[in-house]
Amino acid sequence: IDAAGHYLIPGLAEMHAHIPPTSRAEYLDEVLTLYLSQGITTVRGMLGEPEHLELRDRVARGERIGPRIVTSGPSLNGRSVSSPEQAVQMVDAQHAAGYDHLKIHPGLTTAEFEAVAKRARELHMPFVGHVTAEVGAWRAIAAGQTCIDHLDGFVEALVPTDVEVRPSFFGFLATAHADETMISKLTDAIAEAGTWVVPTEALMVRVAPPGAVSGLMADEGMNYVSAETRAQWRAGRQRALNDAAYDADLAARFLRLRLKLIGAIPRDRLLLGSDAPQVFNVPGFSIHRELKLYVDAGLTPAEALATGSVNVARYLGLEDSRGRIRSGFDADLVLLEANPLEDIAHTRRVAGVMIGGRWLDRQWRQKELAAIAARHAAED
């Protein structure tokens, strides 16, 4: 492969991915293709189903093209869990089924969460995702939650204990009461506990700030999204802006605070993840936006790239085979047309992708992306 004048980096990861159900075969194919086209060679599925286990294994065996998959099962939440005992049964069942981690969604009681945490630790099974409101970030970190996504509960953790704040979108309303001098205490706790953090900031900058929806509809990658999905995303964004609790000035402060939090979290505890596909987050494309946001938060381009490569290998316990360009390692690589250490935006300039030693060249990318765009252009 002639790579003269190009730059080689390890394959990147989307550590908060949503893999479509296998019953939606064409959509599933599109999403996996979009990830690969943008240099994503590993995805961590955050809302799985039994069929994803077979999909994971088929990809691993090279029987199906796609990024490497790690997956949860159905989430543990306030509707799926009814008692601490039933929570333990659900953990045991997912462990026995072979899922890679447990997904925590909101709604668990403190007793249910503690039961999940205890059993997960006994089974050495990662439990990741949201911070349930009754538990809070401080207790989740102390209980050994493996990974916290979306910075969930972090803004609320900065609010003095004598201030009562109404629950809101990832602590949006708590922003006005947050004590930023508490950030270092929170990040020290993360470092001491070894908690991993997936910010998904690309999602927040699509949902929180004011602005016309039309601008988002014209974003790069939106031509690879179905008309139905685009309409759903447009409606969701409009609902957020129309919410009685929405305040544009508070939204700007909320996003500034989140960037401060990302910049303060130990670099070796950050994992790259954007929550795609999700509101205006097109699979693969949103990861490049996420990387830029990490640099905006104070990371160097090298540190930002490490969140999607070296750190991911450490998180997965695969430091001896993934996350670096090294002889004998798994050949998950991305060839770029320009140096990402000079400008992180250069990760968008993908010349080719190698997954497990299989080379996907520029022609493959152009052909696959053109086919997806053509399908959805016909829907308009």
Give the helices and strands, then pairings.
Blueprint: E1 7-10, E2 12-17, H1 25-37, E3 40-45, H2 50-60, E4 68-71, H3 84-97, E5 102-104, H4 110-123, E6 127-129, H5 136-142, E7 147-149, H6 154-157, H7 183-193, E8 196-198, H8 201-207, H9 213-217, H10 227-242, H11 248-264, H12 285-296, H13 301-307, H14 310-316, E9 333-336, E10 350-355, E11 358-360, H15 362-377
Parallel strand pairs: 2-3, 3-4, 5-6, 6-7, 7-8
Antiparallel strand pairs: 1-9, 9-10, 10-11
Helix pairs in contact: 1-15, 3-4, 12-13
Brief descriptors of the model:
380 residues; 4-stranded parallel sheet; 15 helices; globular
- Low-pLDDT runs of 5+ residues are none
Shape: globular
Please state the average pLDDT score. 96
Main sheet summary: 4 strands, antiparallel
Query: What would you report as the Rg, rounded to the nearest angstrom?
Result: 20 Å
Helix content: 40-55%
* Share of residues in strands: 5-15%
